[in-house]
Amino acid sequence: MGIFGRSEDAEPRAPFSWVLPRQSSSLAPEDVYTNADLDPTTDPSQRSWGYATWFSFWVAASLDPAFWQTGSSLIPLGLSVSNAIGIVVLGNVLISIPIILNGMVGSNLRIPFPVAARASMGYYFSLFAVLSRCFLGFIWFGVETYNGGSAMTQFLRAIWPSYWDIENTLPESAGITTRDMTSYFLFWLIQLPFFFLNPNQLRYAFMIKTVVVPATMLATVGSLVHSAGGGGPLFSQPNTVHGKDFSAAWLLGLAALQGNWATLAVNSPDFSRYATNNRAVWSQMLAIPISALFVTICGILAASASIPVYGLDISEAYWSPFDIMAQWNNRAAVAFAAMAWMLAGIAANITANSISCANDMVTLAPKYINITRGQLITAVLGGWAVAPWKILSSNTTFLSFISGYAIFLGPFSAFITADYFLVKRRAYHVPELYDPRGIYSYWHGTNWRAVATLILTVPPNLPGLINAINSDIDIGGIKWYYAPGFITAYIPALLVYWGLNVVFPHHETLLAEAVTADDVDLSVPPTLDSYDAKSETYELSSVSAHH
Description:
Elements lengths: L50 H12 L2 H4 L12 H29 L3 H4 L1 H4 L4 H34 L18 H14 L7 H30 L15 H29 L11 H26 L11 H5 L5 H34 L6 H15 L2 H7 L1 H9 L1 H18 L24 H10 L4 H8 L9 H4 L3 H18 L23 E2 L5 E2 L12
Antiparallel strand pairs: 1-2
Pfam family, one: Transp_cyt_pur
Family: Belongs to the purine-cytosine permease (2.A.39) family.
Keywords: Membrane, Transmembrane, Transmembrane helix
């Protein structure tokens, strides 16, 4: 029959269909379409993320060009290296708290963020958070791919030196050259096979990156420091700002650090539902600050040493690893370093953007989109519709707005933390989260307490966001309320949402104990009690409310 022939006993391949097959394991009612990618990860074989995987996950998330350049957003503010490092440690310790707390929702209940958000925001209002996160994921996917394209340029320049001199045939208004567009397309293309892997398989890519990329960073830094004969002038430079300006620089630096992780504070359940046990997620408390500190110190050391090595002024220090690589004549070193940075970009794009976007799109259109399709759609829309080269080349205002969107991500993250630990006291009824008419529908699918919290906590941050977008607009001293970014969005929202639930409790959702997917006999249909409230004879009859 030949190598491409079909066996007579082979099962015929199902024809392609835009409509996905209905999943038999779904927890949703018969008239609500969903698929297995949204269902809890009840299969023990899916729970494979142990302590080592979590550590490598955060190393994979940190080891990318954006975090390498963290010092470029701190030291130019007038801060010394010691203060910059202090901000990195404090900022990452603080942001790890909501990441871990929200991750416990996923590790305990095995549900992704779009499903977990329904418990606090309501079945339909939670789609606002889902759409917001999906929009941001598209933007950052494109930006991360653009950075990967820069690494691809260095790789191809090392293989074919003439690649560096490709004639540009694109107009200046394009915001990108012919050479860089070619590199961008090639890097975008090599990412695609990774989108066909499930999150359990991706842990191997994270572990490889944990070995390869730190070695590349240390080699780069070691070479520069050796050539410079020391750490360079930045390490002896004191603070150049004092008093009020020093405080402002600290707050702005802290905001920048936490803004980097703001999306992952929301995304956390998307990955923690694959944890081997409930304790594994606590390893992130060490993994997040350690990995971020390592990358930041490498970036500062390299930039500082580049000043004497390449005869630069302090203001001209090479903060980008690609600027440093562009100075190298050793083609083998350039090629291997570029491949490491491309691996870093792919892993970071998957952890922070593509899988989370895919989960969001599965929630929005489960009949047509699964995780793989969602990641491919993210690649197309985030990679091309967003046109990141235009954003990065000219539109700093738009980037300021995207960075400032933490004022919304903070409340979204706070809703999960406050609702799970303070309001519901870890007692969620997981099957009800999949029912638009269930106990988490609140009022027409909207929890007014979450709406009120957004109305009360977002506006105080808006003047600061406006000033960040257009510094010519003077808003007075209130801009410093916005400066800490995620903190002044997360903490007030957590307290307000909790307070509203204390004063106006929603008793139907206040259960005495959790009901997980493992606890439920799905063969028993739901019934209506005498109060027209849905109750499940298999479990809710024995679950009382707490007050």
